[in-house]
Inverse folding.
């Protein structure tokens, strides 16, 4: 296989990836490289810029979210990772292998064993039962029937669908169908899971539950999840890191709180203005460090301000603990409110 020497902690690396849709992408590429915008390229050549010089490093074992409005290039980006789309220019390295140099058989193996995908519209096989849908990828891989059914049953239980093994997809709600889609991807036990607007079709409450479950699963399984959404709140809730796309180009990449606290441009400020900042900011960032009296209620340092707010109904202080559960500081309601107000663009500190 085509091994590329790379940082072993990296799951996915994209370098200068550009995708232009149309008959003569190279001539449109030349215009784009002369700093023409997506709309100028489209007006002059009729070609559509899908991605514009995207470079990203996605570390192993994190939830990396690509966020952007409809048409910003999110699906185009994720489809490069399993090479459903070939780029016009650029390089894509996944788990140290050059995806663009893979032969067809390599690519087939790669799609089966390295990257699994969860789709927005679930993509289930209608005439198969839930368990056969979940086991499908294993069947394609040649896993024996007994083993694949056993493994599928385990993942069905993990996503909370025990009892529905023999149901058909159409007998399930949207949220349940998406759990089947997730179980099917998890059953493949790939290191990387690609999720393209996987929760966008779900009702808000169901969606929120799925987000919590995804974060829990990621923590226990340690997979790399590349997650696409147009919803900034969703990105803030689940992401370890976020890249914001506009017109196919990355506007900003960083930790959720970096993006909320230091938006790189006006486009991102517009998103930030609308979001729940308490969700984006971790307690760690704003706690008072030091040894205080032991607090009755404590949260880990990576809790979000949003999670802490309810405690203030009854307590003045909430303790903050390190990984070993030792109290390393505290927060007050006043401190959190101060932080949220200060971080509103144009208010307080500049
Ligand atoms: N097969 C295609 N042919 C032509 N244009 C396309 C094709 N696929 C996507 N596009 C265009 O590329 C841009 C990015 O699309 P897409 O990646 O689907 O955006 P998103 O997923 O963020 O909504 C859009 O302008 C879209 O119209
Ligand atoms: Mg899309």
């Amino acid at each position: 296989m085509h091994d590329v020497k790379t940082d072993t902690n990296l799951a996915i690396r994209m370098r200068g990836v550009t995708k232009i849709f149309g008959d003569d992408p190279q001539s449109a590429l030349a215009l784009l490289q002369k700093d023409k915008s997506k709309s100028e390229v489209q007006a002059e050549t009729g070609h559509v810029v899908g991605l514009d010089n995207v470079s990203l490093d996605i570390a192993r074992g994190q939830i990396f979210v690509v966020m952007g409005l409809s048409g910003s290039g999110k699906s185009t980006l994720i489809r490069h990772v399993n090479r459903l789309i070939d780029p016009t220019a650029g390089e894509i390295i996944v788990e140290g292998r050059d995806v663009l140099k893979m032969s067809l058989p390599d690519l087939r193996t790669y799609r089966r064993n390295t990257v699994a995908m969860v789709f927005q519209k679930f993509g289930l096989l209608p005439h198969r039962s839930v368990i056969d849908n979940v086991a499908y990828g294993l069947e394609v891989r040649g896993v024996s029937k007994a083993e694949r059914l056993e493994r599928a049953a385990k993942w069905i239980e993990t996503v909370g669908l025990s009892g529905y093994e023999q149901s058909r997809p159409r007998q399930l709600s949207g949220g349940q169908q998406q759990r089947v889609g997730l179980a099917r991807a998890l059953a493949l036990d790939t290191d990387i899971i690609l999720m393209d607007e996987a929760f966008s079709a779900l009702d808000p409450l169901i969606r929120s539950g799925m987000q919590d479950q995804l974060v829990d699963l990621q923590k226990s399984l340690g997979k790399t999840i590349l997650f696409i959404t147009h919803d900034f709140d969703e990105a803030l809730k689940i992401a370890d890191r976020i890249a914001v796309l506009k017109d196919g180009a990355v506007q900003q990449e960083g930790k959720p709180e970096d993006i909320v606290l230091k938006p790189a441009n006006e486009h991102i400020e517009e998103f930030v203005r609308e979001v729940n900042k308490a969700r984006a900011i971790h307690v760690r960032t704003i706690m008072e460090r030091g040894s205080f009296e032991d607090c009755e209620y404590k949260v880990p340092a990576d809790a979000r301000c949003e999670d802490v707010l309810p405690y203030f109904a009854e307590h003045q202080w909430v303790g903050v603990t390190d990984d070993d559960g030792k109290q390393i500081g505290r927060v007050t309601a006043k401190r959190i409110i101060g932080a949220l107000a200060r971080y509103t663009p144009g208010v307080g500190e500049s």
Summary: Residues 60-87+100-277 form a domain with the Rossmann fold fold (CATH 3.40.50.300). The CA atoms of residues 15 and 94 lie 12 Å apart. Residues 346-350 have pLDDT under 50 and may be disordered. The longest strand covers residues 10-21.
